[in-house]
Fold:
Amino acid sequence: MDDHNELLSDKGIQIVKDLLAAVETGELAKAQEYVDELAEIRESELYQEIGKLTRELHESINTFGCDERLTDLAEDEIPDARQRLAHVITMTDEAANNTLTAVEESMPLCDKVLSATRDLESGWKKFSNRELTITEFKELNTDLKKYFENNTNSATKINEHLNNVLMAQGFQDLTSQIIKRVISLVEEVETSMVNIIQLAGSKSSKEAKPDSKDSSNLDGPVVPGLEANSTVSGQDEVDDLLSSLGF
Amino acid sequence: MAIDKKMKILIVDDFSTMRRIIKNLLRDLGFTNTEEADDGTTALPMLQTGKFDFLVTDWNMPGMQGIDLLKNVRADEKLSSMPVLMVTAEQKREQIVEAAQAGVNGYIVKPFTAQTLKEKLDKIFERIDG
Structure:
């Protein structure tokens, strides 16, 4: 029972008793007065209820419209996140290119060292077997001198390139920091969206929606833990699938 | 079994870093005669000059995608027998089947290793010779 029901308060009960007495004694005018009084109590309750609902509605509208956090997210942080992610692309691109350049410049140096070593090796074998003439020995001596010089140069340069490869890996630290921030932003947006949906009172129906994805829309790299069942998980499965097709 | 290392190879990928990686791996395998294109639209006219012997292509690219480039190559009388190796991040079964039906000669998923590239190339040439 409703505690706030004034009809059941002492006042209400008294009015009902008086009403009954008036009816019994046939004082109709008085009875009418008591009925009006009861109606008044009933109406004032209805107004109170409407007032309460109006206040709740007002508060809801206020939270909905004036959630500054939500405005911030939409106006500043999402565009900001977009820029951050674009920066991640730039950084990974730079790192990859710097690394590739270092590798491309190191490879010919290694080849040079290798071929010079092979050339010397045959001369050295002849020398060990005492098959060298004195002129040939002098040549070998000059070649050796050149070899030492060139190798020092090559090794110094390769060292430099390796250092560049090392430095280029700094992108990992920086990009993961940025990506972590974007992930927490996405989480916040998700929470806000859920709140809005709850406020709007609509059910979030997750199931039974047809896949609206265009089939020509390519999925790109498989992300571990997110892959659909229709994807293969690596080169071995690709090979199996192709060989099952007669490849 | 004699693979002509001087054959001209076109590498098609929208990411320059991936093109560089493939180019370097191929060079390491002895294939030094390579050129690059950043999508199917630029690749197709290059192929139609008739200078190329082999095509390595990505799938997902702006402009013309790799699968369409493959279909165009197969539909072109002069290019139809060119070996095509697909190197892509697309791992959906239906896509792999689609590529196979379009006449791809090899399919490598990214990320891949130098060893995988070598194996697939060897396999393709083995079949061509055999």
